Amino acid sequence: MARQKAVLLLLVCVRILGSCMGDARLQKTTCRVASGKADCSRMNLDAVPRDLPADITSLDVSHNRLHALQASTLALYSSLSELDASYNSLTTLGQGLCESVPLIRRLDVQRNQVHLLSDNDLKSCSHLTRLDLSDNRLKLRGEPFSVLNNLVWLDVSRNKLTSARLGSRPQLPRLATLVLAGNDIATLRADDFSFLNESSVLVLGLSALPLKEPQCLRTNDCFKPVAGLRDLMLDGSNLNPQVLSSLCWELSETAVRNLSLRNTQTLTLSNTTFQGLGKTNLTVLDLSNNQLSDIPKGTFQWFPLLENLSLEHNNLKHLTNGTFLGLRSLKQLNLRKALTKSHMSAYSVIDDFSFQPLVKLEYLCLEQTVFRNITENVFAGLPNLRRLDLGWSSTGLRTVSNATFAALAGSPLLQRLNLTGMAIRKLGPGAFYSLGNLTTLVLSHNFISQRLTGEEFRGLGSATELHLSFNQQNISLTPTSFVHVPTLRTLMLARALTGTLDLEPSPFQPLVNLSVLDLSNNNIANINSGLLDGLHQLSVLKMQHNNLARVWKNANPGGPVLFLRDARNLSVLELDYNGLDEVPLVAFRGLWRLRVLSLGGNLLNFLRDSIFDDLVSLRYLWLQKNMLTSVRRETFGVPLAGLAELRMEHNPFDCTCDSVLWFAEWLNATNASVPGRATGYVCNTPPAYFNRSMLDFQPDSCKDLRAFQALFALSQSLVLGLMFLAFLMHFQGWRVRFYWNIVTNRVVGMRDGGYNDLARDRYEYDAYVVHAEEDKRWVERSLLPLEDEQFCFFLEDRDAVAGCSALANIVDNMRRSRKILFVVTEALLKDPWCRRFKAQHALHQLMDESRDALVLVFLQDVPDHRLSQALLLRRAMLKRRCLVHWPLQRERVGAFRQELQLALASSNRVR
Ligand SMILES: *[C@@H]1O[C@H](CO)[C@@H](O)[C@H](O)[C@H]1NC(C)=O
Ligand SMILES: *[C@@H]1O[C@H](CO)[C@@H](O)[C@H](O)[C@H]1NC(C)=O
Ligand SMILES: *[C@@H]1O[C@H](CO)[C@@H](O)[C@H](O)[C@H]1NC(C)=O
Ligand SMILES: *[C@@H]1O[C@H](CO)[C@@H](O)[C@H](O)[C@H]1NC(C)=O
Ligand SMILES: *[C@@H]1O[C@H](CO)[C@@H](O)[C@H](O)[C@H]1NC(C)=O
Ligand SMILES: *[C@@H]1O[C@H](CO)[C@@H](O)[C@H](O)[C@H]1NC(C)=O
Ligand SMILES: *[C@@H]1O[C@H](CO)[C@@H](O)[C@H](O)[C@H]1NC(C)=O
Ligand SMILES: *[C@@H]1O[C@H](CO)[C@@H](O)[C@H](O)[C@H]1NC(C)=O
């Protein structure tokens, strides 16, 4: 117990402390002066400041501690026409107030302690047009208001006045509004309003008075001086039926048009209550908040001219065909919350034909009403009905069948039918078939769960708006869902759909006039690129909170789904929270008119250059809460040029010169609205800027980098070029060499050719071929064909002179050959004969004659060290053109031949 108290005490302390601090925060220390108005409210003043500009016309000193308005101080501000001194501690208006401020027109002393008000107080206030004296303790001495010849508006509410009589002789000739609410006036006497004899009051506020029977009973004297009265407020008065009936009789000679009887708590009506008003032209009657439970038949029969009746928030149990009898001119009937069900009582009932007397009714509001059911003829006989609202009413309606609203066939002008939140589960075929002029049908917030075949909307030939949002995501569409409503301009399907939208043709195809389409919150994952085909008028498309990430991926089978391809008039596109991590390069192509693009809450990290380049009309771009690291001119230059608002906060920006330099400068300089500019744009990398605002980014640090960047670009392209060359040589080198050889051969070959011819004379063979026994087949197949063309080879097996020693043979024939050609394979390297002698001799000859006479044909890749071991040769010792590789690929054999021919034909001189 003690602990609880302590906690309570603590809470109270904190509360007091908090409110004090709050006040301190609110309190200004100097008056705000702007365009002739001085605001000195809530400054804890105990006197009107003397240091304000002399020419101010309006002074607000409300909510201070003033005890008096010193005439001498006010005299400093002689141009003052408005003075607000409400919420102070004034006990008197102070003599000579209006002498010091002769131009004053509006004076507000609401909520003070003004007690005695005498003739002198308002002397010279004849310019006053508006005087608020409400919430004081007024006691009138003499005729204080008699000088106010220009007063139009007077409020003396809640002053504990016991009589409405504010003067004994006629005065206030211009008064139009008099508010007497909340006083202790219990009776109205015959001459109470006689002081208004010469005025023409239009509005009389008599709310919250403890009225008893008027004393001027049935003499019609009470309101005679205010016979021109138009509006009478009697709200919150505790009226018993007798008093109300008498008051109505008192009003019978007035011009009253608008009678407000709200909040009278215990009102009971009978068929004669309003009889007295029968002679008036009453047009507006407000009976809301009265706990009315019964309206006897004929209650409103006295109001043939009534146009607007409100019965909002009552407890009605039963509406019959007699309830509204006589309301021949009624245009609006407000029954919002007028019928209810408590757990004690049975359901309220609206009988068939209840509204039949209302032949002029245009608007019937039955929002949040509870009644048993919509029977077949409830809405019968409303030939002028234009709008019917049943939103959030409870009627037990489950299935809208073709009978439910059949009676509305008698309301050919009906344009709007609002069936929001009525727990409807199903729409039957032809549910609205008789509503041919309906333009707006609202079915949001129901439990409709079905496949829409299109039959549901048959007959709605003029519908332009169809709301189906928030239907628990249980509606599935078919290609024919909307074939009977081709005039639709607005179709709302937020959180309504289930199943796939990947339909052929698209359900929206018939809607050629569609301008607004809401498909948000549907978890849609499957669509095809024809979804919006033909919707050339579409201007607003909402698809946020779906699952469209896959359809825009490049890796999507068949490529990204470009469903916006035909929606060229889009002005608003919302795609937030779709898990998008990719945007196809051409996704926004041609959207010249797009003004709003919203992509917040996705996973976008990299946007390709120029994807936004067609969005020249963009005014609002929302990309907050994505994974963007860089904002570069190449991507954002166009959309950011004419922007009114950018939202890109909460992205993990990489604050480097490369990524955000351009953006940081834009952000610093732009006039566009950027919510959270100072706190929302936080750097994630590099570590130097981690968790700091992008506005701290130093653009100067990038200046040096620009020269460096040029250098970098240069060297980078160099490196890339070399790499490219290297790769080219590696993979396509043979081809390059092949062409090079052909070219050089064409040009240089002539000379070499001459030399060749010369050399022919000296040599008998073009080449002495050394090969291993195992490679004989290759030699025959691949080398010998060259002989036919132009060369003549020496082959040991074929050309050696029999009988001569092998040694002599070799030596002689090598001399007689211009080149020595080794067919290099592992087999050759292992052949001792070859190794020991032939190679050595060949080398010898090479040195001896300074000839460049060796040609190696590699059939296998042989490491250099093996080559030097076996043949005492290194690749480096020979010219490159003398090393020829037998290719593995067939298509390269031609090139090989060419190379070999060149090698054999080349000169032997060492250059
Ligand atoms: C009611 O309206 C009619 C015609 O508009 C007018 O002649 C008549 O004087 C009005 N009655 C009252 C009481 O204002
Ligand atoms: C009022 O209702 C009573 C019955 O409830 C009926 O006798 C009387 O004629 C009605 N008065 C008028 C003016 O309709
Ligand atoms: C009102 O309904 C009652 C039956 O409930 C019927 O007798 C009466 O004729 C109806 N009155 C009118 C004006 O339709
Ligand atoms: C309305 O409710 C009543 C009583 O429950 C029932 O007899 C009647 O058939 C219902 N009418 C419709 C149209 O549901
Ligand atoms: C339908 O009625 C509901 C409440 O009853 C309201 O909130 C909603 O705005 C209305 N819809 C239209 C389109 O008028
Ligand atoms: C209403 O639907 C029923 C069957 O559901 C059908 O027999 C009847 O003809 C329909 N009425 C109209 C007017 O279409
Ligand atoms: C639509 O309203 C016009 C009058 O504006 C009327 O002539 C026509 O019959 C109505 N159509 C339907 C189907 O109610
Ligand atoms: C922001 O703008 C101001 C003046 O317009 C300039 O002095 C400042 O250096 C700018 N800061 C950045 C980060 O561009």
From TrEMBL:
PANTHER family the record matches: TOLL-LIKE RECEPTOR, TOLL-LIKE RECEPTOR 3
A Pfam family hit: TIR
Subcellular location: Membrane
Keywords on record: Glycoprotein, Immunity, Inflammatory response, Innate immunity, Leucine-rich repeat, Membrane, Receptor, Repeat, Signal, Transmembrane, Transmembrane helix
Record-level Gene Ontology MF annotations: signaling receptor activity
Gene3D superfamilies: Ribonuclease Inhibitor (3.80.10.10), Toll/interleukin-1 receptor homology (TIR) domain (3.40.50.10140)
Residues in the signal sequence: 1-22
Residue spans crossing the bilayer: 707-728
Main location: membrane
UniProt xrefs under InterPro entries: Cys-rich_flank_reg_C, Leu-rich_rpt, Leu-rich_rpt_typical-subtyp, LRR_dom_sf, TIR_dom, TLR3_TMD, Toll_tir_struct_dom_sf
Entry similarity comment: Belongs to the Toll-like receptor family.
GO BP terms: inflammatory response; innate immune response; toll-like receptor signaling pathway
Annotated ranges, domain TIR: 763-904
Topology class, membrane: Single-pass type I membrane protein
SMART domains: LRR_TYP (SM00369), LRRCT (SM00082), TIR (SM00255)
GO (cellular component) term, any one: plasma membrane
Protein name: TIR domain-containing protein
The encoding gene: TLR3
